[in-house]
Amino acid sequence: MTLVAAAGRLERVESIEALWAGITDALAPLGFAFFTYLTARSNGAPPFLRTNMPSVYNAFEANADPFLNWCCDSYEPSYTGIAFIDDYPEISGTERAFMEAAAEVGFRSGLAVPVRLEGAAEAGGFNLGTRMSKELFLDQVAPNAEVVQLFCLLMHRRIEELSRRARAEGRGSGDYLNGASASQMASRMSQLSPREREILFLLSRGLSRKECARLLQISPNTASDYIKSLYRKLDVSNRVEAVQALMATGTTMEV
């Protein structure tokens, strides 16, 4: 099963426990063996943590995870783990010890997928680890970074939906994109034409421009025009930001 198909199935899961199991099962065939979903709140509240490396987080505070300090300044995926430690020359002693502890349980190389940025109400996302060397990771895992990122963004949205339901607090997601609140982004979303909404839905499922065109029986150039138009209306510059805008509004789209 592809990640796109798995995402569609997991959007119908009704518990975080079942969702988490489905996420790890879907990502394992790509070589991932270690899974952490971590969001830390700026108000000092306990972080939201799901991981299969509990021994590491028992030894260190979750807020000491270098993922939060080094990988959440943009929505672009980055590489993590002891194999990539030279990419972070200013890392603190505690952060280095954290990465060494993760390496002891097998996490040597990984892909960080932020879904919340530093400076917002919360920061964090997914940190997915492998047992691979740096060279093997770059050869076998890194080429799949874009589709893994889209999968994680969709799963983040579902985690948030189920978490809000469980907490029964009735609050919004608190996500911001390009300085826009969720309500502002919802207003922008309402400006999309039916065809633009269809294409945004397909993009969120990981389809390429050509695949969107083929499915909707339009030319690739026409699909490009629709994509450029929806980017302009949403004030985003790429597919990931467009999907993040969709998630920020909590919109459910069907075709």
Describe the structure.
- This protein has helices at 3-10, 16-27, 54-59, 66-70, 93-104, 134-140, 145-167, 182-189, 194-204, 209-216, 220-234, 239-249; strands at residues 34-41, 48-51, 78-80, 109-116, 122-130.
- The protein is of the alpha+beta class and 255 residues long.
- It has 2 domains: 3-167, Transcription factor LuxR-like, autoinducer-binding domain (Beta-Lactamase, 2-Layer Sandwich); 182-249, Winged helix-like DNA-binding domain superfamily/Winged helix DNA-binding domain (Arc Repressor Mutant, subunit A, Orthogonal Bundle).
- Strands 2-1-5-4-3 form a 5-stranded antiparallel sheet, with helices on one face.
- A hairpin with a 5-residue loop joins strand 4 (109-116) and strand 5.
- Helix 2 (16-27) runs antiparallel to helix 7 (145-167), helix 8 (182-189) crosses helix 12 (239-249) and helix 9 crosses helix 11 (220-234).
